[in-house]
TrEMBL record:
Alphabetic keyword roster: ATP-binding, Coenzyme A biosynthesis, Ligase, Nucleotide-binding
Protein name as annotated: 4-phosphopantoate--beta-alanine ligase
The keyword Ligase appears for this protein: yes
Complex and partners: Homodimer.
Gene3D superfamilies for this protein: Phosphopantoate/pantothenate synthetase
Pathway assigned to this chain's UniProt record: Cofactor biosynthesis; coenzyme A biosynthesis
Keyword presence, ATP-binding: yes
EC number, as in UniProt: 6.3.2.36
Family: Belongs to the archaeal phosphopantothenate synthetase family.
Pfam families attached to this UniProt entry: PPS_PS
Known catalytic reactions: (R)-4-phosphopantoate + beta-alanine + ATP = (R)-4'-phosphopantothenate + AMP + diphosphate + H(+)
Organism: Methanothermobacter tenebrarum
Binding site for ATP: R15, R37, D180, L181, N182, R186, T187, N198, I199
Length: 249
């Protein structure tokens, strides 16, 4: 039992959730390692949403509202940490939800589908009942996508994604938004919008921005996007991590 007053309370609670998901078979062991990597970066950014992340979240909300056919991609870590938030975001945007796993097994796909359905999802794509297609004919197992989901999507939210998959999505012409605590990861570098924040903080904020911007005209949303520079934003985040590190010495 973690005491509420413990300085690492929130972080330890997330760890508990991840371990529980692992023991239930929702997560592969690599999912725990990915979480640990995220934890380290979260520590460096002060375990709170920093200004560059907020700018990226606002731009992501604008992009998702402008999208013709947005899809939210879900892996084991995302399902374990924030499934209800994903479902609410999908409902607000009228977006599809698609399971995409690095370590894909029929059992894990089934468990994640159940988590999402329990969280209120009406439809979950990317299951084994569908005949998945290969993006742009790329013959890698990491290039599969639902024909009604990521395959035809224009904008894809791919949180906690690995660099190879992000690269394939870009090659297939998708505009991608990621949530990734590591501003140096290949995914953060490849994405059109990189939100350097913990997914448990980023998704509720994204929901808040989508609600706030929903009434805006398309021109206003486009203006928000035009004012956003992902490369510069990542550089701001790196500068901020460095200052944070020096303050701790
Ligand atoms: P890449 O292939 O993009 O260079 P990687 O090899 O680190 O990155 P993975 O381990 O597959 O790729 O991706 C997991 C990413 O998700 C890591 O960058 C990690 O920092 C990040 N991450 C883990 N947990 C969270 C979380 N709760 N919120 C946001 N990001 C997270």
């Amino acid at each position: 039992m973690v005491e509420k007053g413990h300085p690492r309370y929130r972080s330890l609670k997330l760890r508990e959730k991840i371990l529980e998901a692992y023991h239930k078979g929702v997560l592969a062991d690599a999912g725990i390692i990915a979480h640990g990597r995220g934890e380290a970066f979260d520590y460096l950014i002060g375990e709170k949403t920093r200004r560059p992340a907020l700018r990226a979240i606002k731009a992501a909300a604008a992009l998702l509202l402008l999208a013709e056919d947005p899809v939210l991609s879900v892996n084991g870590n995302t399902a374990a940490l924030i499934s209800e938030g994903i479902v609410e975001l999908a409902r607000l945007l009228d977006a599809k939800i698609e399971i995409n796993l690095f370590h894909r097994t029929p059992q894990r796909v089934k468990l994640i589908e159940e988590i999402l359905k329990r969280a209120g999802a009406r439809e979950v794509l990317g299951t084994d009942r569908e005949k998945l297609k290969h993006l742009k004919g790329i013959k890698s197992p990491r290039a599969t996508a639902s024909p009604r989901g990521i395959y035809t999507a224009d904008v894809v939210l791919v949180p906690l994604e690995d660099g190879d998959r992000a690269e394939m999505l870009k090659r297939a012409g998708k505009t991608i938004i990621t949530v990734d605590l590591n501003p140096l990861s290949r995914t953060s570098r490849k994405a059109d919008i990189s939100i350097t924040d913990n997914i448990v903080r980023a998704i509720p904020l994204l929901i808040r921005y989508v609600k706030k911007l929903k009434g805006c005209k398309r021109d206003e949303l486009k203006k928000i996007l035009e004012g956003f520079d992902n490369k510069k934003n990542l550089e701001d985040m790196l500068r901020l991590i460095d200052l944070q590190r020096m303050r701790k010495l």
